[in-house]
Amino acid sequence: MTNTAMRDHTTVVRTSRGLSIAGTRITLYSILDYVHAGWPAKLIRDRLNLTDQQITDALDYIATNQSEVEAEYQQVLRDAEEVRHYWEEQNRERLAAIAALPPKPEQAAIRAKLAAAKAKLNQQ
């Protein structure tokens, strides 16, 4: 999209996070997550606490600039996957060590209640 077209569009703005809803921290990529999951506009609007005008403008912008927005969205997904993989690798040993620790004494009562509740459910 050209700079002139971006300036004419007041709801969708480019920020350091990418294409976003003006005055919010909500990106168009977040909206696309819901669109790709098949959510209707009204539910996306309610979930993200947007106005009718904001969701309409965002979806119109996405439709008008579909190839550009979709390309950026795919890059955001790749970047997020790289970050997730990095932190999984960084924390693998630490998480394994935590999992190997014995339960804390104060958790014993909670674990016993959970086990009893599961057993009761399995009997029903």
TrEMBL record:
It comes from the Bacteria. It holds the Pfam family DUF433. This is DUF433 domain-containing protein. It comes from Candidatus Chloroploca mongolica.
